[in-house]
Design goal:
about 600 residues; Jelly Rolls; FAD/NAD(P)-binding domain; 3 domains; 7-stranded mixed beta sheet; 5-stranded antiparallel beta sheet
Length: about 600
């Protein structure tokens, strides 16, 4: 079942996104959020840094070829002269690199402003666009990408008072957005549910579908337009790990339903089955799916979560979802952290994130412009073989904060990609007939915050196959931790971009305990996926997506027992363990049979 208020008329959208204040002492200000443009053209909506910025942005992700204009119509309180401010940044200024690759123009009624944007400042800020005389109350507004190298725009502000300067930070900026966009002070009611699942990756989708099939009313909230997370067409990591294994072959039935068998990772978009995952979720009458909704607030009643609040990625409107039980499948433990759940994150030496990419051969020579803002890789070591370009081990962010530094991590991956391609094409003369054909702008993360449960699973537990009375989820992947590959560190010693996997192997499968799947101090909070209660070493085994899907399916069953027996997640272990283990033997629905193979693809 689709989100009830997913569609808005054009008129409603314009009222939401193009708003103005009544004339005041400081004049009128009109705010246009870039992600709300009527037609984004070739720009893409990038929401992955909303936790730091408060808003998505438009990104000109053109792989070196300028993308089509983003266009919209702005309605002003009156014709006249306005000062224009554009919130943007020079993304390579993070490394004091020359050249400003993210340059773009703002056009008003077809005429570009004199200022070129994205040319200054490593931090997000309001770049002054000067004044412009607008002849009528309505104007056509466009963003014109000049490079194809990831220019970015957060918002555009028109001020009738030329001395007005918009605030740039924290609460002041958030208040400006709410005031000028005329957003409601209180979020709209998104409904009340037995179970609210936040995060629509493999783990979250499996949790939501599992619970819905058992009769619970379920909300599944996802901040992207597609489900699957790292296994979607946006990131393109294949689903690894075994499922439908003894002693609980029923666990994995939902993973099997939407699992596809991509020929490579990354590979063509269609091989990652976005439509298949969407169909599984939408086919459940008890499941309400809310896409492009970013949860950024949690409201508590005592120690329990009562409500989560999301912000729509395109409109900024906020919606609240009330639940009896909640599941944090965000990967970054966003819900748990907002709720005050106990959590841990290794301060340094974490596994990084990947933005994978593809090249393809064409019928003739393809040029790629020489870049001045890249890494100096002349004569430096990095993988140069076609079959090793853009795969899982193009990874960075090992000693950076995966939340606070998320944009820098993604951008360093892209800068490394462009630098490698420039070096091979132009300095070394390799692959004259090949071109960059795709690159993920959504980063595929491996490690960040982990919520703590009644058990914290360790690497030693996995390797020694320590038995637990509540053992329930089969992990088949070895302990697999990524570190910078010493063979290639010379290419970027301050921020390596090639990793190597370090393995500790065991004889699979090993069953991990249920008690890693709920919070030890927020009574009605489950978790599934890479933010469960494990040490970094144990995470190296359980983090792969099929295993996360099994966690989700188990959590859906446990949530059913909570509602049935009027208990909380801990109560399932303490009072209903036998009933829980019996449920693990039974399917929620009989799917098309799928072989219970181990699915050990090349490492991701």
């Amino acid at each position: 079942m689709n989100r009830p208020a997913a569609a808005h008329s054009l008129t409603t959208t314009l009222l939401i996104w193009i708003a103005w204040t009544a004339a005041t002492a400081s004049g009128a200000q009109i705010l246009v959020e870039a992600e709300g443009f009527d037609d984004p053209g070739g720009w893409v909506v990038d929401q992955q840094f909303m936790g730091q910025m408060g808003s998505p942005v438009l990104l000109a992700h053109g792989l070196g070829a300028p993308v089509a204009d983003a266009v919209t119509t702005v309605t002003l309180p009156a014709a006249g002269t306005y000062r224009v401010w554009v919130r943007t940044r020079d993304w390579v200024a993070t490394w004091n690199a020359p050249g400003a690759p993210g340059r773009f123009q703002v056009l008003i009624d077809g005429k570009p402003l004199a200022t070129t944007f994205g040319t200054e400042g490593a931090d997000w800020h309001w770049q002054d666009g000067g004044t412009v005389k607008i002849e009528s109350r309505t104007a056509r507004l466009a963003l014109r990408d000049l490079t194809g190298f990831n220019g970015r725009c957060d918002a555009i502000l028109f001020a009738s008072d030329p001395s007005f300067r918009p605030p740039n930070e924290g609460k002041a900026l958030a208040d400006l957005r709410r005031r000028l966009l005329e957003l409601d002070a209180e979020p709209a009611d998104g409904g009340s549910y037995d179970l609210v699942v936040v995060g629509g990756g493999v783990a979250g989708t499996c949790a939501a579908v599992s619970a819905a099939r058992l009769g619970l009313s379920v909300a599944l909230i996802q901040d992207r337009p597609v489900l699957g997370g790292n296994s979607s067409s946006e990131v393109r990591v294949w689903i690894n790990g075994g499922f439908q294994l003894e002693p609980y072959p029923a666990i994995g039935e939902i993973v099997a339903e939407f699992y596809t068998r991509p020929q490579s990772s990354p590979g063509p978009a269609e091989q990652f089955g976005d439509d298949k995952k969407q169909a599984v979720a939408e086919g459940e009458p008890n499941l309400s799916l809310f896409t492009e909704e970013h949860v950024n607030e949690v409201r508590m009643e005592g120690e329990r979560i009562a409500t989560v609040v999301s912000q729509n990625v395109r409109t900024g409107r906020r919606t609240r979802y009330t639940g009896r039980l909640f599941v944090d499948c965000t990967g970054d433990a966003t819900v748990g952290v907002l709720a005050g759940a106990d959590w841990v994150m290794k301060p340094k030496e974490r596994m990084g994130a990947s933005n994978m990419w593809l090249v393809e051969e064409t019928d003739g020579p393809v040029a790629f412009e020489r870049i001045e803002w890249g890494l100096n890789l002349d004569g430096k070591p990095f993988p140069r073989e076609l079959n090793r370009l853009g795969v899982w081990f193009w990874e960075t962010g090992f000693d950076l904060d995966p939340m606070a530094d998320a944009e820098a991590i993604r951008d360093h991956n892209l800068r490394a990609m462009f630098s490698v391609w420039d070096t091979m094409k132009n300095a070394e003369g390799r692959y004259p007939n090949h071109r960059l054909s795709w690159a993920a702008f959504i980063a595929g993360k491996r490690e960040s915050r982990r919520l703590l449960g009644d058990v914290i699973l360790t690497g030693e537990d996995v390797l020694t196959k320590r038995p637990f009375p509540d053992a329930c989820v089969a992990t088949t992947w070895p302990i697999d931790l990524h570190v910078p590959d010493p063979r290639y560190v010379e290419a970027a010693p301050d921020n390596p971009f090639i990793s190597v996997a370090q393995y500790d192997r065991f004889e699979p499968p090993y069953l991990v305990p249920y008690r890693i799947l709920y919070s030890r101090n927020v009574p009605n909070l489950f978790m599934a996926g890479r933010n469960v209660s494990v040490t970094q070493e144990a995470l190296g085994s359980v983090r792969v997506m099929a295993t996360g899907g099994l966690m989700g399916e188990v959590v859906g069953r446990a949530a059913y027992l909570c509602i049935k027996n009027d208990t909380m997640p801990r109560g399932v272990y303490e009072k209903h363990l036998d009933e829980f283990k019996e449920m693990l033997h039974h399917r929620t629905r009989r799917p098309t049979a799928m072989p219970p193979d181990e699915l050990h693809h090349p490492n991701t």
